[in-house]
Structures are given as C-alpha cells and as structure tokens.
Write the structure tokens for this entry.
Amino acid sequence: MSDRHRVRIDLHVASAPRECGIHVGAAVLEEAGEILSPHVRGRRLAIICDAAVAQTHAQTLAGACSGSGFDCHQIAVPSGEAHKTLESAARLYEAMFAASLDRSSAVIALGGGVTTDLAGFVAATFMRGITLINAPTTLLGMVDAAIGGKTGVNFPLPGSAVLGKNLVGAFHHPAAVLMDVATLHTLPPRAFRCGLAECIKHALIADPSMLDWIEAHSAALQPARSGELVDFIARNARIKADVVAGDERESGQRLLLNLGHTFAHAIETRPELGLEHGEAVALGLLAACAAGEHLKITNLELRPRLRAVIGQLGLPVRLSSSPPLAEVLSAMNADKKIEDGKLRLLIPVDVGVVEMVRSAPDSAVEAGLASISP
Ligand SMILES: NC(=O)c1ccc[n+]([C@@H]2O[C@H](COP(=O)([O-])OP(=O)(O)OC[C@H]3O[C@@H](n4cnc5c(N)ncnc54)[C@H](O)[C@@H]3O)[C@@H](O)[C@H]2O)c1
C-alpha cells in the first residue's frame, strides 16, 4: 500500500453549516493551506500547539498555511493534562488579542486530545466563537478527541485539589480535521498505545470484527506502518463520526462512547497512580466488565479476552496502588454521567453489546475497582 494512501470521511451534524472533512493520510499537514482555505474568512490563524510539537509539526503546518497566504501566529501550550485549565485558556485569549485575531480568524489545534480540547474550547469562546480546525498528532486524538465537537477544560472539584475532568466546556465542531500519520513518528510509544485503548472501546461498542483484527494484527499497529495505519485510523474515525452524526449532543447513542470512562475519569486525575488518559480507559473497560459480572449481565468470557488483548498491546491491566473506594465514588458522583443524583454506568455485556445501568449500586463500582487493584 502506498505511503500517499489517503482517506476522506465527511461528517455532517445539524449544528454545523457544512460537512466536516476528516482527512487521513501521510503529509496531510503539507496541504493544510489548501484544505482550510474554504473554511476561513480572514487571513489570520492562531496555531495553538502542544509544546512537544512546536519545533517540528507546527513548523510544517505554519509553512503550508503561510504558503497559502495566511498570517500565522503560533502559540505553544506546555504539554500535559495539568495544563488543560481555564488559566491556560486565559493565556491563549491574551495571546490571540495581542495578535489582533478577530471573528474572521481561525484556530488550528495541533497536538493530542489535551490540545484539541483546550484550543477547541478557546475557539468556541473567543469573541463568542471562531472557526476551529483540528490537527491531531496523537493516535488518541485522531481516532477520538479531534472528532465530534466536544471541547473543554478540567476544573477543581469543590473542596478538593483534584481536577474534575472536562467539567467546563462547549460543543464546537471543527470545520475540518487534518490527520497526518507522519506526526505519529515522533509520538512516544506510551502515548501511541493510549490511542489503542479507545480503538478497543470502539470495537466493543460498534465493530466486533475489529477486536478480532486487533488481536491478530497488534504487531502491525506501529506508527511506521503508515498504509495499514491510515485504514485503521479511518475505520475508527468513521465509527466515531457515525455515532456523532446520529446523536450530536449526546442524548442517546453517543453516550456509548463513554464506555469505561466513568472509571477512567475517577482514576486518571489521581497523581499517585501516574496514569495517562488512554491507560485509564483501558483499566476502565476492564473495571466496567467486572462491574457487569457483579450485576450478572456480562458474558464471563469477555473480561479474560479483553485483559489479554489490552496486555498484548502494552497497556496496563492493574493499578499501581488501590485508591480509596470512597474517593473514587465521590469523583464518579461529580462526573457528568450522573443523572438525578444516580450513577449511570455503561456496561459491556459482550463484544458489540453495551448496556446502560441507570442506578448502579456502589457494590458494582467496588467490584470493578477490585478487579483492577494490585
Ligand atoms: N473531546 C473528546 O471527545 C475527547 C475524547 C477522548 C479524549 N479526550 C481528551 O484527550 C486527552 C488525552 O489525549 P492524548 O492521549 O492525545 O494526550 P495528550 O494530548 O496529553 O498527548 C499525549 C502526549 O504526547 C505528546 N505529543 C502529542 N503529539 C505528539 C507528537 N506527534 N510527537 C511527540 N509528542 C507528542 C504530548 O506532549 C503529551 O505528552 C484527555 O484530556 C481526554 O480527556 C477528549
């Protein structure tokens, strides 16, 4: 398969004036100027990038946009979840006002999910909203975070130093998404593996045959194998795009994309556990499976199978220490999956079958947590 292999997926949602083109392939950033020209009224662009890609992929992107006549202002944000905050957003607004960006300008978010969430929130709120283009540079960003218009920042839980995940945010769809697989060549292996956790989630929700494929082809899932990777990313991006197209504001089907995330959000912001988001999702999927066993709705063959594939991909299957149950429950209760004070828990029943348990008992959470404890 050629290294120039490209896939384009079109996502249409009711709130966006036109469809969002999702471009997957190698050297997509080099064509950024042409791709984004029809979407940007003015000539000024803010390239909001993760500091880790400021000297590399941001230069490629800025060169391509300048070549198409845009006036680019690069603003780097320090790497890491700890910077996905309102303080970072305020610094970005300041830099954008200083660069005289206006309502005809656009933001290009270049980085992983932390950057697309933060820069997307800034684009949603700067002068009441300007055009956003996402250019994810992590696998997780490509298969998940850069698609679907959810933007936001973390916010401290009341009376606690722990940040609540994505508690402040907005829906703001990108006008286009540029997925250049060449950016994955510089991605640390640990960050690459994190993206695979969301792909397992997609398989569990919507594509049982993809779980077979991942089990059989885990060795092919390397940043350097760009042909296979383009198709794999496109397959996952299409799953996410189809779910979003059917339920833009997360009132039904889209909730399924949160599979594993209620557990994940409660453990990933605990610094002593040292977890990245994708690692917490992998553990969250296993915990949700165990919670389903406790509730007697999950196929008992599912968790060993999941555990094997998660381990085979180099993702964690156990926590490094056990967080106190009461604190996990309290973090879950502050999560957005609470309705009328009751915890809604998504449970994998089997591959391709997910059930929403609307009033999950604490004992199910306890069973889930116990299953991933050291
Ligand atoms: N909005 C959504 O729908 C959605 C969906 C899933 C996840 N998310 C969010 O995404 C975030 C996780 O995203 P992530 O896993 O991409 O993490 P991340 O953005 O923190 O990136 C992971 C690491 O890779 C580095 N990096 C990024 N691209 C690189 C590259 N090409 N080369 C070298 N280093 C690079 C970053 O500096 C960081 O250290 C979480 O905050 C999560 O809440 C959002």
